[in-house]
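Section 5.1 Outputs to date
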Amino acid sequence: MPLDYPDIFSATLGLSESWQVTDVQFTAEEKRLDITLAYTAEGAVYCPLCGMPNSISHSADETWYHSDFFCHATYLHTRVPFFQCCSLQSVERPWSRAGSKFSQESLC
């Protein structure tokens, strides 16, 4: 039975239903794992400060890095949606929670 990589990585990353693993690439020679994520929720997003519903205003490409995820250098690639309410905010990124060891890569 083949492994279901999207389900395995979704569970390990603690992804909510709003986030989906859309691609997994593994390079054994480089010990590198690239995981592509997509935000798939439709409809309003709710401000964590005031609870009001908002619409996504734009999104931005982000890459996050972990040096030892499943014993490999791992890169998460995604477009993160943003909305404006009490301040400019992004939707929740489950992999960025405290203790996850993923850090955002600079695009410079």
